[in-house]
Amino acid sequence: DNIEPDKGTEKKETVKLSCSYSTSSEYVVLYWFRQYPNREPQYLLRKNARSSGDYEDTSDDRFHSAASRTSTELTITDVRLSDSAHYYCALRVAAQ
């Protein structure tokens, strides 16, 4: 007998990473980067928060971010082995 996996039932995994921050500014821009060993950090996305609006700019449609007043969360859908890396969040206080 020949047994083959049912390719239609492969589950696409989702991972969520969170990052807390503190600032009194209402104009906040949040960034997510990832870094592979011995490589430069790689830009993933930018997310405006608070009074900066809800704009999001991403380098890959699998990456999305949500933000509250004190934290941000990176969601990676359809996780792949190549997503194994160190992830960093960064905050910039934007001009009004």
From TrEMBL:
Keywords linked to the UniProt accession: Adaptive immunity, Immunity, Immunoglobulin domain, Receptor, Signal, T cell receptor
- What would be one Gene Ontology cellular-component term for the protein? T cell receptor complex
Q: Which domain of life is it from?
A: Eukaryota
> By its UniProt entry, which InterPro entries does this protein fall under?
Ig-like_dom, Ig-like_dom_sf, Ig-like_fold, Ig_V-set, TCR_variable_region
According to the UniProt entry, where is the signal peptide?
none
Domain Ig-like stretches? 1-96
Q: Name one GO biological process term.
A: adaptive immune response
Instruction: Give one Pfam family, short name only.
Output: V-set
Protein name (record): Ig-like domain-containing protein
State the species of origin: Sinocyclocheilus anshuiensis
